[in-house]
Amino acid sequence: MNIFNTNKNSKDSSIINSLGYWTLLFLATVLPIVALTSSNVPSLMSKVFVGGSLVLVTVILFALSRLYSRELVMPRSLILGAFWLVPVAYVLSSLFARGGGSFFGERISLESTAFMLVVALALTTVATMLNSAKKVLGVYLAMLVSAVLLMVAELVLFFSPGTVQSLGLQSVSLVGSLNDLAVFFGLISIFALLSLLMLPVTQVIRTVLWIVLLASSYFLVAVNLTPLWWIIGAFALAFFIYSVSNVYLSKEGFSAQKISFASLFVLLLAATFIIVAPVKKDGTTTFTGYVSKRLDIGEFDVRPSWNATISMADQALSDNSFIFGTGPGTFYHVWARYMPVSINVTQFWLQDFYYGIGLIPTSIITTGLLGALAWLIFFVVFLWKGSMSLMVLRDTAHGDIVNYIRFTSFVAALYLWINAVIQVPSPVLVIYAAILTGVFIASLNFGTSVTTHFRLMFRENKRAGF
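The structure assignment produced for this chain is given below.
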């Protein structure tokens, strides 16, 4: 006799799974705009706490739904397996690194075992939970709503600098630093460009996307981060060439309307600020400098250079365990011991740095060879699977939504992971990178008859269920 009420369990599972999905949407919406007004709590710590808490709630709800349904369906993904090598490297480094290393890191930092486990859980849950294109579009809509709310809030903060002090905010940027704000709106620009390029949108939606693109471009101009212009310019160039090649290879003949002039606009904008934005030879202020001065949004971004980071990595890994690194969250010890002598004659000789030039280069120092191999394997697998999936995309002229999701999630995730290499991003951007990577993994199962997942039936395998 079956002592379980199968129908009730199935209904409860569906309700809890829906709660988990809505928690994920809430996470994607509020994380960029949530900010604590306490001067005693660093902004990054608040983002880690809020993001980590919402990710864990999503994971718990998803796990409960699977327990009620008594089965687990997960994608067979090399990307997923490769990324889990990263938190494993962090765990081993925490246990065996000669320099030690705490589980949570200094001030609950990005560069900690706990945060990397949260990121891996977010990626895995998203890849498993989003089993339809409709759910993915819900996540995209949540990101768009967050972007619009952030635009409104940032315009208020930009044009009313006194609001920052009156609200007790630590920065004019709610995402993190001003660089993080620019990276976030660079991400929104990429989504807008790909939506205009790949979807058969109506004139109203096209107008809305152009407004979002222009507003995002405004923030990119105001912050004016040169490395970011190079990255966005490269993506815009790729999108423009893609649109032109599609037009010339199309059986329907040439049509100028199908060329991505939005990508051309962003490409020309990026080229302009790469060439013109640096300080002029006579030392006069550039346009972006004038904008920053008028809006009073300047920020002093100081980090160890690539040369300094590589030099410290060489010395630290030579003196400590080359295999396990110095331990997660110990970069500030590395800086104090191995910082370049030239720093002693600058105003930063007493400054503590908790990261190197970027998050992933710092991770390689603190987790050693294991961390370096883990990140390398993940990037190689991610790029390989992404490139293979994009090469076999069908003609997107008719707005195939699966192709759109697959293309946008891969490109957007790649953009954010590149950012994690060249600078230290806000927790918002790292969690978004995990979510978009999970979306890409999930999209590989859409519209295919090939079995790309495995199913674990708890009711049939009691040991596995236990």
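Interim note for the steering committee: The chain has 18 helices and two strands. The radius of gyration is 23 Å.
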